[in-house]
Amino acid sequence: MIKLIKKVVLFLIIIFILDYIISEFLKNGMRKYNQLDKKAEILCIGHSHTENGIDEKKLEKVLGLKVAKYFMPGANNPERLVMLQNYFKEQAHIPKIIIYDVDARTFEKVKLSDNFYLQFYPYIDTFQVDHYVSENGATQEELFIRRYFRLLRYNDSLLLRCAIKGYFDPSVSVSTDLIDLKDFNVKLKNKKYSGFHADVNSVKAFEEILNLIRIRGSILVLLFIPTLDVYNKSQIESQIESEKMFRMYSHKFRNVIYLNYNDKYEHNHKLFLDAAHVNKSGQEMVTNDLISDINIILKY
Amino acid sequence: MQFNSLQYFILLPLVYLAYYFTADSVRWLLLLISSFYFYYTLNSPLLIAALIVVILFNYLTAIALIETNKESIKKYILIIGITCNILILLFFKYITSVSSFFQEYFHSQLKNEFLISIGVSYFVFQAVSYLIDVYLEFIVPERHLGYFALYLAFFPKLLQGPIERSENLLPQLKVPYIFNYNNIRSGMFLFAFGLFKKVVIADRLALFVNPVYDNVHAYGGLTIVLATYLYAFQIFFDFSGYTDMALGSARLFNITLTQNFNSPYLSTSIAEFWRRWHISFSSWILNYVFQPLQMRLRKLGQLGTIIALLVAFLVSGIWHGASWNFVIWGLLHGIYLASSVVFKPIQKIIYKFVGLDKSIIKRIWQTFFTFNLVCFAWIFFRANSYADSIYIVKNLFNGFGNISAAFWDHKGHEVKISLFILVLTSIICILRNTFKIDEYFYCWRTTYRWLVYIGFILFIMIFTINSKGNFIYYRF
Fold it and tell me: Which among B6, B450, B461 has the least Cβ separation from residue A144?
């Protein structure tokens, strides 16, 4: 029996050690994938609009500055606050410019999938991330196990893939497909728009983000990456009201700049993969304009 | 608590350690307390009450059976005993309907703790088999209330079986415990393998099956066919995974529970399938429903056998749940078996005529055909409603049915990982059952065996699916 206990204890020690080593390897991969390891001068933070809309490699090449792109599909203000807090914990270097993608739904309550919080598991060593996960779906038991058995943080196959991809080429390739407008119009007819309702928590999170960036002395660029005109028209109230808010913040805070690429490109349907996301051509347009604008910002 | 929970990972070794250091005379008490605590964690006082009632009632009924000399009175005692057990079972099976009744007529709902019936089907069936065996004098009734209570409540098999016969389990509970390193080692490995089947494979397959079956009208044709095949594997790995964990847990205490699965999808006939699938349940149905009925109806010859089969599988369907889908599922299997009674002789003639009588092609064909018959029946088992199951059956051959949305879009990598793990594990399961490779494995050098154990645990940790889903057979 004593021999058994010794073996079990030894086995558990080996598991804990290997668990730590492999999870650190995967976490490092995640950091590389999310570009948290870069001492970036320009940080692009957002959701799938950032993922599709900004070519960070081209920005880096033309501007001659390090650019990090940290996105999480579906992430809105509350999630991005956590992402930013995590970024500042992982990376001591403060970016000069933070590009934050915005759209008509930025201040609304967006329903995320039940297991959205899984994407944050690799970073639960950060207090704010741990808090977010515990408040947004994780049971106490689930979170407790993952605090101590670190490999369990990578249960999601997408996370695992991203962690390994981080060691190779973390860049995202954007599709060259075009939107099927006919199909989209049919889907749009079945959707009901319920008007603009600013969510208190979302606005509060956004203002905390503003504060977080302001005290670090960075410039915040609110970038409206184009979405399809038909889609924008279907939620015109949200479009107008959210734009009012973006302009209000940019007037109120000296370090906040609002760039609206939507008006310029929303009618050019060849630039869209679907109603909310640009394709490769759209990415090129957005990135070229962004390069010009950043050059101006850096000058002044 | 479930087997794949942190609570159980802590409880099991603690119970084992306490068991090891406890005197033989009171070990049963420790296991009994642990079993009740295990059941208590379901947070349903009604279930605990049901378990206590079933234990006491059947203990006293069995003693009454043996104390009575008159055959007619014995028979009445047995009938009353079985009826009361079945009534308890039916009450729990239909309790959600009772809740609706309360809601409608008394404008108040039964609390959640009254709405669950986990484990009741299993220990009630065990109690019924015990009473019948006592009546038929196959066994003598257990006089020690503690051992009898433990026989019904033993926690590794409490929630989802196996449905243990008293002649198998009761004697084992009384044997003085002698530390057996091989049992500990193989028990832990079996538990880990069961955990792997559940959290890595079954829960992973559910990612593909659930979106299709929970929204059948968005799909059709090949998509539904593939989802059904995947469900066949999901339910197998889910249930056999649980069974492995139960058997592994029991083995720590030197208790051998009944094997519940034996590569069922390699069966060449439905009859063989039921000798390999949920073995403890199917043998219960065979011994206590089918055989007595067949005996009763023997004067009807083949027709009597057919009627007995249909009734036995109707009971089987109803045991699984109070829904038309389960009844149809059970009846389908009954019809399959009844048909084989009639057509088997004709099949033999045909195979002999075409020269396939002893060929491997015949075996492959039979295995393929049996698997598809079983999968067709699974449609009714899995579908969320009768209407859904009819839709599925009507649309089985209706094109590709949105297959990329179901299995490929945003899931392409998951498909590849899942298929790889599924195929690898299926091969391992077949090798374990057919060639008993476990014994060969334990002859390996310690270093190599430890590398396998460590790799296996790390694999489970990385590839486990973060699911809050219960075991499938939990709800029966």
Answer: B6
